[in-house]
UniProtKB/TrEMBL annotation, chain A:
Coiled coil: none annotated. Keywords: Membrane, Transmembrane, Transmembrane helix. PANTHER family: IRON-REGULATED INNER MEMBRANE PROTEIN-RELATED (PTHR34219), PEPSY DOMAIN-CONTAINING PROTEIN (PTHR34219:SF4). This is PepSY domain-containing protein. It holds the Pfam family PepSY_TM. The chain crosses the membrane at residues 12-36, 139-163, 184-209, 334-359, 371-396, 411-429, 441-459, 471-491.
From TrEMBL, chain C:
The chain crosses the membrane at residues 43-60, 65-83, 89-108. It holds the Pfam family DUF3325. It comes from the Bacteria. This is DUF3325 domain-containing protein. It comes from Belnapia mucosa. Keywords: Membrane, Transmembrane, Transmembrane helix.
Amino acid sequence: MKHGFRQCMAWLHTWAGLIPGWILFAVFLTGTAAYYRGEISAWTRPDLRMEDNGPEAAMLGLRELQRIAPDATGWLIGLPTSSDPLLRLYWRPPGERRFRDGILDPATGRVAEAGRTMGGEFFYRFHFELHMPPIWGRWLVGLCAMSMLVAIISGIITHRRIFADFFTFRPGKAGHRSWLDAHNLLAVLALPYHLMITYTGLLTLMLMYMPWGMQLAYKGDQQAFIAEALSIAPPPRPARQAAPLTDLAPLVAEALRRWPETGVRRIGISFPGDANATIVLGRGDRHELAIRRRELVFSGTTGELRLATGNDAPAVQTVGVAYGLHFARFELPFLHVLFFLSGLAGTAMVGTGLVMWVAKRAPKATERRHFGLRLVETLNLGTIFGLPIAMLGFFWANRLLPGMLDHRPDWEIRIFFALWLGAYLHAALRPGRRGWAEQAGIAALLGLLLPAVNAATTRHHLGVALPAGDWLMAGMDLGFLGFGLAFALAARRLWQGADRPVATRQGGHLRERGI
Amino acid sequence: MVSAAFRARMRGWRWPGLLSRIVAAVLGGYAIGALVSVACAVLLPLPRSEAVVIGMMLSFLAYAGVVLWVFAARTAWRAWAGLLAPGLLLAASWAGRPV
Amino acid sequence: MAPLAFGLAYAGFLALALAMDRHHRDLLGGVPSRMGRLLFRGGGWMLLGLSIAPCCALWGPSFGAIAWCGLLTLAAFTLVSLTTYAPRAALLAAALLPALGLATWFRLS
């Protein structure tokens, strides 16, 4: 009976992994990039970086908000941190529900007009919304994540020789054996990460996926639940009576005195200029694992401290740790690299799994390849190499599109999707190893030349960043070079063996990209 | 290569059975997960925000467990029966909650 | 101290690998005796356990535990790549990496 159970789990593992596989690959890769979301955002707007996050920066943001949105019903200032060195401004015009946003140019003290971009936000949002309407994208990603959780558990059950094969990799073996080894290694050695990231990913949107307990216990009042769970002060109502806003600087100084290590991350001002205005200072979240909402609530007119919020109850705390693990916002560079590498391992695990499905079913040279196999092969190449091409193309577009172009952020995204679509078309027209080699070559060129494009278009290239010890800009460029190099090696290897049948593809290129 | 037990099992996996299993896994799993989140929210003797959060956290594990069960069960009928039993139990706990 | 943790974890995994017939044959030739197998296995687990100490000393208990998981993964991947492509270097690294880790630790403290 035992034998049969395992076979069932193997069947489940195959299909729960394959069907959402391409989406999972994209979610993993863009999510891995989003570990450096702040850095990407700064790289895409190199002239807007600022380091100061004290009272002066807060005043700078406040003055600009007073200038551009004096009658807004809400203001929000996001102060820079060293991994996300941009000062973000948000304001809600009267009568609107959504906030608008901009980034402050420290040179002029105004919201920046030129060089608009989604920056790292694009990869971050794509990672859980797939650039679809949020409700569709989030449900789709949620279903895929659930499938991933099932695939991981059934994979563990299936993998009988989990300890015996712990260190086994046989790249020379024919057929799907070496792919199986690579897939097992990527899965087993980073297993704690895979389980953690999948489960905590589901938890980040749990209130959307599983609201039923909350619906019942709070009679459908989601705001009441959030207020209770996160211990948030209820939003104020406007008095409809004008009153000047108090000075912000002493409040920020008070917060910095209470939170000397973490600092202030967010400043929210509701109904500025109203007698009932409130100022909420949110604590920085870059120095501890658990993401917990901690706020100081001040009166907006007198500057008197009304409330210090925060919930330390164990279950809510656990969720805070889960979010901390998933978002990895903490500023510990080495740990961040480990998360990034683990994310790449996850991406490569999904990729090797997809390729293995084909390698296992590859017919002999004389046989016809049926439609399903061709489809999976096309989707594999277009996703596994096409998505990196599209992502690198996004950075190219960021540097080469004219600064004052209308709807510039949309054009960057259009170029991203155009390249990706092109990769699928190419994959459909050029099946087999040669197609893989060509796309790897394109990705290599895009990666290796990106620092040169950066040097030609900005003053923040490697020649400047390295001597100045500017590790943010230099790190991004070096990263592009590293990926370009890995793709170049993969391309060379794939090209050399292009005459051999596809089934004996070796494990090299994905492993190089994975680790 | 393939064992007799597995082949016997695969016989029950023709399309109607498979389709019914997929429905049981995707929708039934979600339903059990939702019931777990509700039962925790109602039954756990904790502050309600804590009970709700614990329910949400457990619901995804329950969902995954149901999917594994549905595809491990010998027949599609057994898979469904295995869903109904805990489903009814959870629903009863919800219905009999102290008001 | 991160290099020390990495070196200990690497050496630990290598010892565990040497306790297995296949890897012992590939790296040292022959199969380990019963005694040797026990020693490799015990030593391997001990080194893996030890490697958490520098992590916690450096990052505190919560971040330390996470860094430890990440370093274990990294060490295991390094070991697999080395045993596959440069088996002799894999053995050398087991001695060099912890020593290097110790050296950087003393230099810093």
